[in-house]
């Protein structure tokens, strides 16, 4: 079946599913394969549950009139998404980076949706499957689509760009994330920059932080660029007035009081402000969008439980984001500070030195109550308390009384699931 024919079917059934546990009536089921599953085997189950059609790539499962046999299901999904992206008239903004992608995406959405019919990547559906699914959420009346792109190896962003074909792009930063897959920091810079390479090649618009020396050096004079501390005159001058703990921003004579913690979120807000200005969103609407955005899903959340203030940033971690977070926490005013840090994953051979560096930084910043969790942190040379597993930490917390006036900071890679600490408070 040609992609144009499949797209006509999609227009009649504009909802896609890849999981039979979440099938809705009239979904198109794409029978994807993984290391431990074969979606073809669930095609009939999907149809029984109400799927309009099941797209499969193994002939032996083409036993129902509602199955559509293709050469490769994943490739078909990606081609369909690209076809649909051009069928609709929405402008596509793509963003990537080592840290802050999802928060920045949500802030841009909060601002642009004030003026435009806007869709954005849901959660972190930002890989070779998530990007196509996000593009298929574009509707004929969508004006702007914000597509997040994640990667952990070379050429992945290049490939995702070929699917989304963005009109605009932004890289949040280059940090020490996925070092194992990218082959070091230089590999991260090269891999993430594939978004800018695509945009430059196709004469599209790049938004960039000209205060970032890496981006400034790479892009030089060839693109529309802006800084955050002093923005080009056709944009706003943006300053951060405080971040203790919430980021406060001044734009012209307007004060914006966000619900985001951490000075590192200032640049994320700036990206949303500048894009809002570029797309002619009124400053009052930009202010409303940013002030109403409330982080969730363990990303820079501020909680209070039994009198204890908790800064929960346990969605993910890498050396760059961990360093920024610790420096920010050191500057916050609090009577008693407790630091719970979990292992950082995907660092390859650099894991020992990167974990040691974070332990040393915690000591250097003067934290007196630091608790390190995970196999990597357990091997560092430090006088901080170390726990090889979460279970051993859990046993400790059952006997430990956290001071009522304490402020806790919790951060670690997603696999550490450190949000579980909150249950012990």
Automatic annotation (TrEMBL):
ATP binds at residues 97-103. Gene3D superfamilies: Mur ligase, C-terminal domain, Mur-like, catalytic domain, MurE/MurF, N-terminal domain. GO terms for molecular function: UDP-N-acetylmuramoyl-tripeptide-D-alanyl-D-alanine ligase activity. Residues 299-377 form the Mur ligase C-terminal domain. Its EC number is 6.3.2.10. It is found in: Cytoplasm. Residues 96-275 form the Mur ligase central domain. Its main location: cytoplasm. SUPFAM superfamilies: MurD-like peptide ligases, catalytic domain, MurD-like peptide ligases, peptide-binding domain, MurE/MurF N-terminal domain. Pathway: Cell wall biogenesis; peptidoglycan biosynthesis. It is an enzyme of class 6 (ligase). Residues 16-83 form the Mur ligase N-terminal catalytic domain. Keywords: ATP-binding, Cell cycle, Cell division, Cell shape, Cell wall biogenesis/degradation, Cytoplasm, Ligase, Nucleotide-binding, Peptidoglycan synthesis. It catalyses: D-alanyl-D-alanine + UDP-N-acetyl-alpha-D-muramoyl-L-alanyl-gamma-D-glutamyl-meso-2,6-diaminopimelate + ATP = UDP-N-acetyl-alpha-D-muramoyl-L-alanyl-gamma-D-glutamyl-meso-2,6-diaminopimeloyl-D-alanyl-D-alanine + ADP + phosphate + H(+). Belongs to the MurCDEF family. MurF subfamily. NCBIfam families: murF. Involved in cell wall formation. Catalyzes the final step in the synthesis of UDP-N-acetylmuramoyl-pentapeptide, the precursor of murein. This is UDP-N-acetylmuramoyl-tripeptide--D-alanyl-D-alanine ligase. It comes from Maribacter chungangensis. The gene is murF.
